[in-house]
Amino acid sequence: MSPQRIVGLVLLAVGILLLILGYNASQSVAEQAMETVTGRFTETTTWYFIGGVAGTVAGLGLIMFGKKK
């Protein structure tokens, strides 16, 4: 397996982990109250989602289009 694909797998795993953390954070009572009052998530939760999507997309890209041996 090429090093690019290994990096892709790591990025995919980290991206999925960040998405899970973001989802869990968005379901907390404090986050729900903040969303009700302001209409949006806190910065931390938003960055979890942004990082999760970016990591997942980058990881999938490296896995699918990384160099083959």
Q: What keyword list fits this structure?
A:
3 helices, 69 residues
Structure commentary:
By secondary structure, the chain is mostly helical. The protein is built from three helices and no strands. The chain is rod-shaped and about 55 Å long. It starts with a helix and ends with a helix. The protein has one domain (3-65). It has helices at 3-26, 29-38, 43-65.
Blueprint of the fold:
Blueprint: H1 3-26, H2 29-38, H3 43-65
Helix pairs in contact: 1-3
Helix content: over 70%
User: Which value, in Å, is the CA radius of gyration?
Assistant: 15 Å
Series of secondary-structure elements, N-terminal to C-terminal: HHH
What's the mean pLDDT score?
Answer: 92
Oligomer: single chain
Structural class: mainly alpha
Segments where pLDDT lies below 50 for 5+ residues? none
The count of DSSP E runs of length 2 or more, i.e. the number of strands, is 0
Note the beta-strand portion. Answer: under 5%
First-residue to last-residue Cα separation: 7 Å
Number of domains: 1
Largest sheet: none
User: What characteristic shape results from the CA principal axes?
Assistant: rod-shaped
Q: Number of helix segments?
A: 3
Short structural description:
This protein has 69 residues and is mainly α. The protein has 3 helices and no strands. It has helices spanning 3-26, 29-38, 43-65.
